[in-house]
Amino acid sequence: MLRITNLHATVADKPILNGVSLHVPAGEVHAIMGPNGSGKSTLAYVLAGRPGYEVTKGLVTFTPTRHPGLEPGPAFLEDGEKKRRVSGQARDDELDLLALEPHERAAAGMFLGFQYPVEIPGISYLQFLRESLNAQRRARGEAELSAGDFIKLAREQANLLGMDAEMLKRPVNVGFSGGEKKRAEMVQMGIMAPKFAVLDETDSGLDIDALKAVGAGINRIMRAPDKGVLLITHYQRLLDYVEPDRVHVMLDGRIERSGGPELARELEREGYAEATA
Amino acid sequence: MTAPFPSRKQEEWRYADLDALQPVWEQFAEPVTLTIGAGESLEEIWLPVADDVQLRRVQMALEAGAKARLFVLNNAPVYGRTELEVSLAEGAEFELYGAIIGTGLSTNEIVTSIKHIGVGGRSRQTIRSVLNGKAVGSYLGKVEVARGAQQTDAEQSVKAMLLDRGATANCKPELEIFADDVKCAHGASVGELDAMQLFYAESRGLDPASARALLLQGFVMGLWDRASDGDAIRNAAREALRKVV
Q1: Which chain A residues are closer than 8 Å to B203 by Cβ?
Q2: Which of A242, B65, B142, B173 suits a disulfide with B186, CB 3.0-4.6 Å?
Q3: Interface pTM (ipTM) of the complex?
């Protein structure tokens, strides 16, 4: 579903990713662990298309599964010419993710859970999410949600995540605690219902109760045969709630080692240096 | 008798569009005067009108304990000027929330002179400008604290967003203080939209133009949060922003 091949990227001319290769098939949750500065967050930003994160080499293909007749694919999936990489490296049924603008990636079903969710004063969460969701729906050729239907959806998702729905009337993330911001990211994910989620340290700054709620949220929203998750984390503890199918260790901008869920426990026990020696 | 036509040599008219002002000067030469009686409150919303040149010149006296709160949107297509001279007696409170949204070749300005005369007065001025094209947006704000007007608390917060290289923001907070136990704060910034906020909005599905429009709305719309009936000014500001973004 998401295939990363020999990805190289620089930030301010400094090489950060040095040949990442990784494949997350539909229906799977993969975890990426690794020490500070190994390139995990850079990978997340590159996948979401953050300006200033320059891809110098490599390919990322994204194949959101479609349900013919139920849900039309994004318009640009049909008119592939513009959006498929000039080199023609991507296959016909794949999206060349790196050729898409950030908002097109969102419409195609990609979601980034931010490590540091951004504050936007003056705009309520409800307005922000409704406009975002409807922009995605328009891009996919779907009907927009009415104000009433949207508020119902937003309340439902907030409740499921254990967040007071009244908070959605406040400006985006302004005055939210670290934990509340992370919970709100998951509420956003619930509302957007993406096909693929890259979650960048969604567990940091969470107490045990919030961690459980967030873990349950990830399972509920993203555990499905047609969805995939890339979970970036420092710690084993989130993986107690969201059992990964594969665990990858990132070091110096490369995947150094991959294994099953037991690899996370080994890392926790022995540290990165030992486990990748 | 009509007041003499202003000149650019006068500081408070330095950035004005005097050519646009000339034909309508007689109509606006004399400021409107307003007195808010002791302990009374006033809240007003000043919406733009349809004219090319729009002036509001008001002298306001706040008597002891009086309160005034003004919400102002300045977006004249040619020249707009909101001019306020406010005096505050003991314990009076004055709040101004002003937006300048300018496009094309327009000149819009908010010029204030706040005189703290009595003890314990409080003034708040919050100005947000969004300018594109070759528009000029200016804020000149003078705060005077008279001898003996102790415990005065005056604040000016002025921010501008320039969307094009040709746009100009002038911003001049000025303080004249003759008392020694006062709080007078002022902050000013001229900037562009925050790159991380833009990326965050785009990552949620908004195309770059919509993301910019949304962030600019946030920049301006926070001004009307305290208006008791802010729908009209909210809609007018939203409409004005649509033309600028």
Answers
A1: 48-50, 102-103, 105-106, 112, 114
A2: B173
A3: 0.92
